[in-house]
Amino acid sequence: MPQQATAPRCATVAVIGLGYVGLPTALSLHAAGHTVVGVDVSGRRLTDVSELRVDLAPAQRDLLVTALGREDFRLSRDPAEVADADAVIICVPTPVDRHHVPDLTALSAACASAVEHARPGQLLVLTSTSYVGTTRDLLVGPLSERGLEADTDVFVAFAPERIDPGNPAHSPDRTPRVVGGAGPRSTQLAASLLAGTAPSIHRVDSPETAEMSKLWENTFRAVNIALANELADACLELTLDPREVVEAAATKPYGFLPFYPGPGVGGHCIPCDPHYLLWQLKALRSAAPLVDSAMSAIAARPGAVVRRAREALAERGVTPAGARVLVLGVAYKPAVADVRESPALEIIDGLSALGADVAYSDPLVPELDRAGAVRRSLAAPEDHDWDLILVHTDHPGTDLSWLSDRPGVLELTHRRPAAAGAA
User: Fold this and answer.
1) What is the DSSP string of 23-65?
2) Is pLDDT larger for residue 167 or for residue 282?
3) Helix (H, G, I), strand (E, B), or coil: what is residue 87?
4) Euclidean distance between CA atoms 258 and 281, whole angstroms
5) Lowest model confidence (mean pLDDT) among 69-78, 182-191, 372-381
């Protein structure tokens, strides 16, 4: 069972990587009373952080404003800064390449840097999602080669991040944290450090258990999203509203969790993380056919939207070549400015390849660079005529009431009535 958080001692903590995971992590640690050094190899990112040009929830933005005015919160490009820290938290991206093969470049470099500058008594905590065994392969083993034994000379743990961008209900201070150390002392120290940043700490017996728990979480979501999309297509074939069906099913108080269909899956987690598990299983000559099928379905979803858009144009007697198409919202989810892995990108590319004249409007994403061509968000899309409008991301506070009298609307979010159907 999760152990209730207790106040840890003050420490100097170096956070390697100040992206969408690292920056909130650094702010949570600082708010908990620790001295924080944020380390990032990108000078531009550090400038953006220092000038508040970052995508944060209002409460976290307030924490950043406060932190930037304090002497106990510093930003640095120098990896050697970690040598003076009591603890090092590694929060770097773990993407996949276009073949869905894990790209461990950033993670390997960050871990190598932490190992190089590690000193006796230091605590190293990896938070980046990766394959089972990463903590031992990239930290415990290399530290041993330096003569630093885990849980004796240095302390090592894995504590997967649980950041839900754009959702204040799931901020770090409201989300339980899983911690698995390389030994009991490592687990204890990591739990103590993170206790002030989470409502509770759930300790597990090893880094591998913690690593697998993260892969399980996101693979669970991926499989259920793929299922929701498939069942939504079935609903549309039966002339039913998928969202109404989901909400009806969700009234069951047991054995069901609502997952909502949409144009695809974006962000850094769901489209990527399950591939770390599939990649590792393949190397072991094992398989997870259900997961494999779900990830294939997720990858195919944007292409299905393009085909549905082509059909919608045909129903109106419009050929794709030269068709005026608008994509409303290109971020991968509401309330964020993040377009990583956003289905909108592939949808725009697919429609453009058919010859359509594609524009987009997103108040949080002022411009997109696609294949070297920069597209800019339309401020007033309602002032133009469109052959087809795709509602991809419905940001809170965005007025889409003007769609009600527009023909040719594909409602991809299933959040509102659609004039031309849905996908």
Assistant:
1) HHHHHHHHHTT-EEEEE-S-HHHHHHHHTT-S---HHHHHHHH
2) 282
3) strand
4) 29
5) 372-381
Which residue in this structure is represented by tokens 């023909």? Answer: 407
pLDDT at residue number 423? 46
Report which DSSP code applies to 230.
H
How does strand 3-4 pair with strand 200-204? antiparallel
Closest CA to 191 of 179, 199, 182, 183: 179
Q: In this structure, how many other beta carbons lie within 10 angstroms of the beta carbon of residue 9?
A: 10
Q: Would you place residue 106 in the very low, low, confident or very high pLDDT band (cuts 50, 70, 90)? A: very high
Classify the C-alpha dihedral 176-181-183-185 as positive or negative: negative
* Residue with token string 């094992």: 286
Rounded mean pLDDT, 171-177: 89
Q: Which of 91, 235, 269, 272 is catalytic?
A: 269
Residues paired with 13 in a beta bridge: 36, 87
Report residue 248 as tokens: 């009806």
Question: Has 111 been annotated as catalytic?
Answer: no
Residue type present at position 292: D
148 Cβ neighbours under 8 A, 6+ residues apart: 118, 120, 154
- Average the pLDDT over 170-193 and give the result: 94
| Chain center to CA of 279 | 19
Total residues found in the chain within this entry: 423
Q: How confident is the model at residue 254 (pLDDT cuts 50, 70, 90)?
A: very high
Query: What is the spatial distance between Cα 334 and Cα 412, in angstroms, rounded to a whole number?
Result: 13
3-state SS, residue 234: helix
Q: What is the pLDDT of residue 197?
A: 93
Q: pTM of the prediction?
A: 0.91
Query: Averaged over 406-411, what is the pLDDT?
Result: 92
Q: Is the dihedral of CA 104, 109, 112, 117 positive or negative?
A: negative
- From CA 128, how far away is CA 70, in angstroms rounded? 27
Question: What element of type H or E holds 356?
Answer: none
Find tokens 């660079």 and name the residue: 369
Give the separation between CA 360 and CA 411, rounded to whole angstroms.
15
Residue 153, Cβ density class (10 Å: 0-12 exposed, 13-18 middle, ≥19 buried): middle
Q: For residue 249, what are its two tokens? A: 């099913």
The whole-chain average pLDDT of the chain stands at 93
